[in-house]
Write a structure and sequence with these properties.
With about 90 residues, the protein is α+β, with helices and mostly antiparallel strands. The chain is about 25% helix and about 15% strand. Bound molecules: zinc ion. The site of zinc ion has 8 residues, from strand 4 and helix 2.
Length: about 90
């Protein structure tokens, strides 16, 4: 099953010492992915998959919340509806 997608930082091309505002993860669908663990979305409490590379970011940026893609998308949609984000 190839539904798993590696977790991404909030922004592409982050510098090593920089932390994202939020760490975006894919919802955990129960499939075991080698080397990955689970985290919790800070919005909906859903389990999310945390890849090893993402775990490094979490370890480096302990104050940054992990959030599932669904909640991030909802926020973007809401922000656009309110005119907060152009495009
Ligand atoms: Zn969520």
């Amino acid at each position: 099953m190839e539904v798993f997608e590696e977790c991404r930082e909030g922004e592409a091309g982050l510098k090593e010492d920089k932390c994202p505002d939020v760490i975006i993860c894919v919802p955990w669908d129960g499939d075991k992915v080698e080397g990955s663990t689970t985290g919790i979305c800070d919005k909906c409490g859903r389990e999310v998959a945390v890849a090893p590379s993402t775990r490094e970011i979490i370890a480096r940026c302990p104050g940054v919340p992990t959030r599932c893609m669904l909640c991030v998308h909802l926020e973007v949609i809401r922000a656009k509806a309110e005119g907060g984000i152009n495009g």
